[in-house]
Amino acid sequence: MTDITASDRASELLAALSEQLAARGQRSELVVAGGSGLLALGVTDRPTRDVDVVALWEAGSLRKAKPLPQELVDARNRVARDFGLAENWLNPGPADLMDLGLPKGFLDRVQTQRFGGGLTVHFASRLDQIHFKLYALVDQGAGKHEQDLRALTPTAKELIQAARWTRTHDPSEGFRGMLERALRYLGVEDADLGP
């Protein structure tokens, strides 16, 4: 499968998706995070294999992207065929973040980009990507999540804010211990994480 290796490549794929949707009189608004979002924000040039859809923006509010609407799946699959990508190059992998809530003020911070008449993408902001990447680092381990988090150059204050949000998703003592160790590893000592 071909990687999405640069922001212009991600833009090309999203523009093609927009064309597929518009050709059938359809329109989608997506909320995107992860590696492709970091490419779009110009934070990293790390290759990624997919576009992670957190939510769908419909009538001014968010709804969980799982499952993706059939018309979006059909358009995605046509783009996959045309560009030699795996069919899941656009997927709702992080959609479960919606279950317990996105960071406070998330919608006020998104960076919106239109890709023609069929697609608008709201990219998670730098601050929100810090939240997601810290959560992923603690939940799934280092590797790309640590690399991405360091590329975001978070301040101690931003890491503590993100850490408090991650506790709303996993309040267990085990997670808290791993979170505290991760923060120390990232240079944040004695963080007040609340109850």
Written description of the protein model:
There is one protein chain. By secondary structure, the protein is of the alpha/beta class. Strands 1, 2, 3, 4, 5 and 6 form a 6-stranded mixed β-sheet that branches. The longest helix is centred in the N-terminal third of the chain and has 17 residues. It is elongated. The relative contact order is 0.15.
Q: Quick recap of the structure?
A:
By secondary structure, this protein is of the alpha/beta class. Helices cover 50% and strands 15% of the residues.
Strands, helices and their partners?
Elements: H1 7-23, E1 28-33, H2 34-41, E2 51-58, E3 61-64, H3 70-83, E4 90-91, H4 97-100, H5 106-109, E5 111-114, E6 119-123, H6 126-140, H7 144-151, H8 156-169, H9 173-185
Radius of gyration: 17 Å
Approximately what portion of the residues adopt beta-strand conformation?
5-15%
Helix coverage percent: 40-55%
Mean pLDDT: 91
Main sheet: strands, sense, barrel? 6 strands, mixed
Contiguous low-pLDDT stretches (5 residues minimum) are none
Number of helices: 9
- Care to count the β-strands? 6
Q: What is the helix/strand order? A: HEHEEHEHHEEHHHH
- Derived structural class: alpha/beta
First and last CA, distance = 45 Å
Based on Cα principal axes, name the global outline. elongated
